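Researcher: Please predict.
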Amino acid sequence: MARTCAELITEIQALCGRTGDTVLITSARVLVWLNEAQKDIAEYVPNLHELAYKNTISLEITQTLKWPFADITFDVTYDNTTTNHIAHVFNIFLLDGNESAKLTYLPIDEFDDNWPDPTHSDTPTNQSIVWTRRGNYAEIMPLCNTNDCTKNWRIDVAKYPKDFTGTASAVSSILSDADNLLMAYGVWKSFVAMGKETADDAAIWRNEYYTLREEYKDKNDTMHEWQGGTYFPYE
């Protein structure tokens, strides 16, 4: 059973010999490190099923170049809709029934080579066909034509795990089987915070974290549903 946030904090303090520390390795600092670890794992391991999300209702198409990822809404238990919660963007579709179309991703340099001045009045509008990511925005070209501007985008993403919000929280991480990984990160950062006298311990736990993270990626970077012929190609 996954540990709660409060239990993870207690374990981390115990592993670095600072049980109940109220001076240096405080519960508040460990809480910050736990959230840092969750963010790092989400960015390093893109194929986590528990972070996958398909959005089809948040973004209605208009003749706009930039689309803020902060406008993508999740379920009410997760998202406040005012913060970027997107770790990875996988696909963008224009939704139009059986005429729906998947847009092609272009790196920023290729996108800019094709559309150096995308919003100029000389640039024709048409059905949007490509997208790129610039910071926390998707940019989509060509700008949509009038017929498409009543439709919606579908955006497939991996969201960040929800932050732990309190040191006494009884909530567990949404990340599956990641407790040892979260604790390794917290102990590593604890020894770093203690200073040069614990540098060797910090190095040991840093290596432990990176090893566990790589194992976690190997474990989750698979499609178990396709193994053993569970599903067959559609014919």
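Model: Helices lie at 5-15, 27-44, 108-114, 179-194, 199-220.
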